[in-house]
Amino acid sequence: MITIFTLIALQNNNNWLTQRSLPSIVNQTHNPDHLLLIDDSLDQPLSNIQSLFSNIPSQMSLTYLKNCRTSGFSGAWNTGLAYIVDNYCHDSDNTYISIMMEPYQWSKNHIKSCVKYALDKKDVIISGIVQRDKCETRELKIHKHFTIYDILNQDLNIHPPGIFLRLSSLLEAGLFDERMHSFIIDDLCIRLSEINVSTISTNNHSVNLYVDSKNKCLSKKEKKSLQQYYQKYHCRMTASQKKAFQQSTFIVENKAFSKPVNKIETDKQISFQLVVGVISGNAAQLLYLLEDLFFLQSIPCIASLNVLILENGGDEQSLTRLTSQINAKGLSCFLITHSQQKKDASNGSFGISFNRNNEQLCIGKARTLLQRYLYEYVKNDINSIVWILDDDMRLNEKTEKYLPTLPKFKEQGVDILIGTFEGASPNPSTSGMRVQLVDLLNNIKWLNSMNNDDTLADRSEENRTLRNDFPDYYYDLSRMHTAHLETVYWLTPNFKGETVFNARNNLLNNLDSLFVGSSLLRPLIIELPADPLNAAEDSVNRGGNTFILNPMALINAPNAIVSVLGKEARRSDMMWALINRYYYGMNIKKVNFTVIHNRCIFDTVELCIQKTVGEIQGSSIHAALKDVLKPYHKASFIFDDDMVSTVCKAVNEYMNKRLSSFQLNFYRIQGLCRALNRIDKKNEMKSFLNKLSSFYVDRNLNAITNGVKELSSDYIKEYLHSLKIQIDSYKHSELDATFLKGKIIQPV
Q1: Cα separations (Å) of 286 from 426, 470, 606, 715?
Q2: CA torsion 337→338→344→346, rounded to 10°?
Q3: Listing from the earlier edge strand, what are the strands of the sheet with 129-132?
Q4: Which of 26, 321, 723, 741 has its CA 20 to 30 A from that of 212?
Q5: Whole-number pLDDT of residue 381
Q6: pLDDT for residue 747 is more than 80
Q7: What domains can you pick out in the chain, each with its CATH number?
């Protein structure tokens, strides 16, 4: 048996739907099992919606949804598809999707003729179009099968109401591209072709299209969509196809131009003592950051620069040698050893005492220790500025441009300043794998369309547009937008005159770095603000690049995060920021002061289930608490039963939303694996694709889903009730800092 869903996107004027489209669904000899109405209108009156409902028999299963994704048909249909996957779909191979929209109408046997081929397990079933206007009626040619060449040749007569799709194939193709408002079905059919779906025609012209003879002007969205479709696929077009497309759509090719880097204007610079705190268990990795910090000492505003290193796992002897070498070179470094941490932990110097064993601390606990030591280090000099960095960060020429502005932020009462990253995303690699694989597939196709000795074109301007349109362009689980997921980020030359051959080799030789979250295909690029003080925004989204302008922030709160079955969730740094903001009322800003996140050679080359689980759990708790605390300037962090219930409900909602997004991305990655395997004729990506395919299997999806759901209301309740205790215990802890004697900063 198969299950059939029909999607209808409601827009502002639904007269056609009421008069022809909906009646043609109701009158089918084989009705769909479920009808989904997705409201994509702008504040449509409830009476209009109710009038539509009145046209649908009570025995027909019906769901009404608001479009919660990108405005337009693609976003509305994807809203419906996500709802189906979350609530109904237990067998996507035997679930089929049909679409109705105005001004179309089905003949009464339309679905019945499609079901015949669906029972034969066909992926895409195409019905013919009868085009009707006042002057004539004509049957458009039916394509029984199609290739990407046919699609780019604009030969297809496939319309949304004329396509009957197996859900599993639609999921692997990535659903509808929400950036497309024109050529929506052409774009989808290209992606369906890439995963080698089976197609067949019903040989039946069962879809009526009623054409208005008046010329309709394209909207701005549709015009922009034409440009985006051309940018995405022109490298696959023949010369004649390009010319035909440009002539029919009036599209012109974009020309690249360079944009100068913003300069920060500073008045008379105020000097300050800078203290850098970093956690590390890898001397080879840490070396790069320490060498970068060494050169910062020449900046006029830096009166002195000292580095505290918290040893966490790895080889302590290597870290000790490195610290000695850097001190001898002229940069003041101090290593806080495992034995020192063990002694202080047993004394309760970090709040509630614990046994600091020989294992590597989780990042939340390690950050708590580092911050406690940093407070002792700088507490005698309130004018010192602390900079907490992850050990896989690098500095560049932008650093010396923004550091002189830090005292200005301090003068304006900012307590904590959160910086940003360039290069690799701070998220687990599984949180950005889909978009990078979309890039890989399309870039390989682009490179294959050129000669090896051709110079690689610079498509930086197209990439800049993507970054400007979608701030989370690198993140699969973005809550800000979803239209970036099938948009391509193009390779750009690493140096002037780079050939296609060099670019392709560099790409293929570094594919494994995607497993550790590298920025191989979709790097974070941030433009420095010209006026940082005015550009700064309120935020509690702390990461591995944070300036502490008020030392009390270091002693105020631990990095508290929930633990589930002995496994800690992620985002402890954001919980620390949340406590400082809403318990202490601190002023926390975020500004685009960047460091380079240099993930690659020192990390284990594998995808991790637990990191993915912890990320979804931690981000859900943080988002829920941020929502609950938002109305308060300061909160007691004593949670009564009502607040606990509210937080638990919000956490579950956020977890379900993230799991829904993760699941859709997971299915798309399975499709991308198929598509990449099909074009890997020389087995150049075989090893990479084998590792990728072995992770993206249903067994692991189930493990991640079940792991996330282990975060029950009992764990959340226990965590909420522990927060005030953790805060007070940490705030009033005492640390014997005599081991830092001679190192502690004194007032200037």
Answers
A1: 17, 32, 21, 36
A2: -170
A3: 104-106, 207-210, 129-132, 137-139
A4: 26
A5: 85
A6: no
A7: 3-219 (3.90.550.10), 272-427+524-731 (3.90.550.10)
